[in-house]
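User: Batch of two.

Assistant: Item 1 of 2:
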Amino acid sequence: MNGFDWNAVGESLPLLLEGFQVTLLATVLGTLVAAVLGLVVAMAGRAPSTFVTVPVRLVTEFVRSTPLLVQLVGAAALFTTVEPLYIGITVLGVHYAAYTSEVYRAGIDGVPKGQWEACRALSLSPRRTWQAVILPQAVRNVLPALGNYAISMFKETPFLAVITVQEMVFEARKYGAEQFAYTEVFTLAGLIFLVASYPTSLLMRKLEKRLGH
């Protein structure tokens, strides 16, 4: 490739791999936050009291209606004493929880009515009904969708660079500015994203087909 500096690729690779560790950490922890909080939001949305459901709905709609970038910058401005990585993980988790909550809701609504009726016939408590019957079926049905959101989160971690989280794109931009090798370093970063996300995407498709049978 004419004008492509392969030395820059070799020099920047260790830096990008260090940044990739931060990217991966933010993705894994952000996904855990989104998975747990999304379930809590989905359950709260089914509460019998409007004092619970209305605030939950308003907050969820606010999160969905505002860009992730704005949420990151706003959170960083509000919590100036908190480590940027922690802010990034939390904002990613909360942002995607607003979407995973809908996935959980669909999964819960997809549980056959006969399962609910059987639980009532057996006089199971509400807690036992949810823990032993409803949630295992609902979560199993939504696993592929949760996996797809995790992949989406992984591809949006570069936004964390805006709040100075030293993830992979932050390192790429820093190296590119110092060595004037933007093409090389961002090409390498893109390839790392591809290598990491594409096999996971194929795995999610396979899981979706398997659970669909």
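Item 2 of 2:
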Amino acid sequence: MKHTINRWQFALLVANFIVGSSLLMAPSAAAMFAEQDAWISMGGAGLIGIGINTVLFLLLKKYNYTSIFHIIELVSGKWIGTIVNLVLIFAGAHLAALVMRNFSNFVNIVALPETSIHVVIFMALILVVYSVSKGVQNIGRVNEVVLPVMIFVVLGTLLVVLNKFHWDFLLPVLDKGWLPVMEGIHPLVGFPFVEMMLFSALATYVSDKKHLITYTLVAIGFSGSVLMLAIVVTLGVEGPFLAGRETYATYSMARSIEIGELFQRVEAAIGIVWLLSLIVKITVCFLAVILGLQHISRKKTYTPFILPIAILIWAMSEHLHPDIVDFTDFVLKNWTFYWLTVYGIVIAVLVSGIVMKKHRFTKENTTHLQGGAEGK
């Protein structure tokens, strides 16, 4: 298996990670609180996302983009470092499980209502496990094909639905002040911008790290802009009332698209590309988790961890939340605080290491780590 990717592939993974997971749910999450000002909430969340990831990647640059798991152990020592690493690993597995549950909920509600959720999760996990077994480079190359198609479909859908767009649905701006906007920003920061912390486990495998921060921040800015545009169009077509009460507002908006007798049920295209994007995000989370376990165990390959983590994600995705209402309630209320806590711990470790000048010991480690994870 090969783990080396270039800066372009890394940036595209970042964009898919952000846009893919949030495309259908972000309008609902923001409109539920901010109503017609949901697009402002998305813009604010995007700016915060750029800020927190700028801090993260500037600190990682000080460590020469060594794997976050190695940095944590280097700074905190073996025992405390292992505990902190396990916290980050669990957060990654938890995220993978929730995204998998999101995947199965969508398929079960929209496409295959009579199919068991167990079957849907099993089929998706087969694809994820196969991709993970081929290494980071595999998902980077697959994503190079998936993301442009997704962006084309999304922007094309937003364009053809403009004939049903009503500006009145976006007015008046800030009618209820900034408090609802801030409430709308809260869930969008955690889902998906803080979650990007998992890329600190993959940055070490970028072949040319020069200007990597620039590539990453441009990808975040582009992704936030696409999501903000999607929210504007969804609000303009559906209206803030419906957008805030539909589970998949963007998908529902696309149902209204009909171009003669030839193009109907266009929403299926959005559904398919969204599901492919979720597979990419689950794979990124899965890779981060098993790379962390590989580091802790000191094994030359992460292969022994693939099946156990797949089973864990399967179990967590099915049993953490009994239904979609409980799932949505947890994400909206607790997810951002949960991930900001993990983010705060990681940032504290990175800053402590720089203060203690331990980042100087990582100059020779990046190449070594890349070679050690090749899976001999």
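The chain has 15 helices and no strands.
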